[in-house]
TrEMBL record:
<dbReference type="GO" id="GO:0042110">
    <property type="term" value="P:T cell activation"/>
</dbReference>
<dbReference type="GO" id="GO:0005576">
    <property type="term" value="C:extracellular region"/>
</dbReference>
<comment type="similarity">
    <text>Belongs to the LAG3 family.</text>
</comment>
<dbReference type="InterPro" id="IPR013783">
    <property type="entry name" value="Ig-like_fold"/>
</dbReference>
<keyword id="KW-0732">Signal</keyword>
<keyword id="KW-1003">Cell membrane</keyword>
<keyword id="KW-0325">Glycoprotein</keyword>
<dbReference type="GO" id="GO:0045121">
    <property type="term" value="C:membrane raft"/>
</dbReference>
<keyword id="KW-1015">Disulfide bond</keyword>
<dbReference type="InterPro" id="IPR007110">
    <property type="entry name" value="Ig-like_dom"/>
</dbReference>
<keyword id="KW-0964">Secreted</keyword>
<keyword id="KW-0393">Immunoglobulin domain</keyword>
<dbReference type="GO" id="GO:0042289">
    <property type="term" value="F:MHC class II protein binding"/>
</dbReference>
<dbReference type="GO" id="GO:0009897">
    <property type="term" value="C:external side of plasma membrane"/>
</dbReference>
<dbReference type="GO" id="GO:0070374">
    <property type="term" value="P:positive regulation of ERK1 and ERK2 cascade"/>
</dbReference>
<comment type="subunit">
    <text>Interacts with MHC class II (MHC-II); selectively recognizes stable complexes of peptide and MHC-II. Interacts with FGL1 (via the Fibrinogen C-terminal domain).</text>
</comment>
<feature type="domain" description="Ig-like">
    <location>
        <begin position="50"/>
        <end position="129"/>
    </location>
</feature>
């Protein structure tokens, strides 16, 4: 982790001994403990880092009308009760809930592009969520496949 963690030295004088991990990986989940000694006094704190992973299959880019599977997993230890997916942050009819962490779209359209948030609900009432920005390659042109252009002009 040495190349992915940092501590702001300037903040240490103000009592801020925060650790920054960037980028976070699945294997970084777990309990972190900090000990700071100032004169004869020792301060310590513990923080648990939970990690949520959202994976896309097949990997990007997704092509319009080709099936895709979004999976959401967390390092949380309790039993998973429900996974809900929200499209573009709006809980509407485009919300899908199930007892597992996957969202399958058999024929993705350009309207499926955008932000998808998975929310995991656990048996200990813990709610965790992560967002995935889905990009789809497809044709987003006119609804009719005929385009007219004047002779001598450009046609797009």
């Amino acid at each position: 982790m040495r190349l992915r963690v940092s501590v702001r030295d300037s903040a240490l004088r103000d009592g801020d001994f925060s650790l920054r991990v960037r980028p976070v990986r699945s294997e970084d989940a777990g309990l972190y403990e900090a000990w700071v000694q100032h004169n004869a006094e020792v301060q310590k704190c513990q923080v648990e880092l939970g990690v949520i992973t959202v994976t896309l299959s097949p990997p990007s880019p997704v092509v319009e009308n080709e099936p895709l599977l979004l999976k959401c997993n967390s390092s949380h230890q309790a039993s998973l009760l429900e996974t809900c997916w929200f499209h573009n942050r709006v809980p509407t009819s485009r919300t899908f809930c199930s007892s597992h962490g996957a969202l399958s779209i058999l024929r993705p359209a350009m309207s499926d592009e955008g932000s998808w948030r998975c929310q995991l609900r656990y048996s200990d009432n813990e709610l965790v969520s992560a967002t995935y920005n889905l990009q789809i390659l497809g044709f987003d042109g006119p609804s009719k496949p005929v385009v007219y252009a004047a002779a001598g002009s450009a046609a797009d």
